[in-house]
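A reminder from the course coordinator: this example appears on the midterm review sheet, so study it carefully.

Given structure:
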């Protein structure tokens, strides 16, 4: 009897990877938040800029404050509109944004990364307190 119990438990212990457990859907809003927060945590970034596009921007999904995201064939591409702090190397900050955003997408979401375009819209200079 003990032998038959071992055979029974072996035959019903199929790995979970092989079973179809369902599907996972990620909202574009989740991607927007990941992209925004990751960008804002890069040293040298002051804030996100508004995304150009007017009324069309309001009606399109995948567009948020400073971010446009496109998902096609399980690949995420993004345009990030940023305002940088003064006295930073713009090229270095842009590369750091691209690196950190690509890593966040691949590790947090598990999707492929396409193009991460950085648009530097302005520089934040401190206000002159002597005036």
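Designed residues:
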């Amino acid at each position: 009897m003990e032998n038959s119990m071992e055979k029974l438990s072996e035959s019903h212990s199929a790995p979970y990877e092989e079973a179809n457990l369902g599907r996972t859907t990620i909202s574009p809003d989740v991607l927007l938040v990941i992209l925004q927060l990751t960008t804002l945590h890069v040293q040298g970034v002051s804030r996100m800029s508004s995304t150009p596009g007017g009324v069309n921007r309001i009606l399109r999904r995948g567009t948020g404050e400073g971010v446009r995201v496109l998902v096609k064939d399980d690949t995420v591409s993004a345009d990030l509109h940023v305002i940088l702090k003064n006295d930073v190397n713009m090229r270095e900050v842009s590369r750091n944004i691209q690196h950190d955003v690509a890593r966040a997408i691949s590790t947090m979401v598990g999707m492929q990364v396409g193009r991460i375009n950085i648009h530097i819209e302005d520089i934040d200079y401190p206000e002159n307190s002597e005036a």
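The longest strand covers residues 112-124. The helical segments are 2-11, 28-40, 54-59, 90-109.
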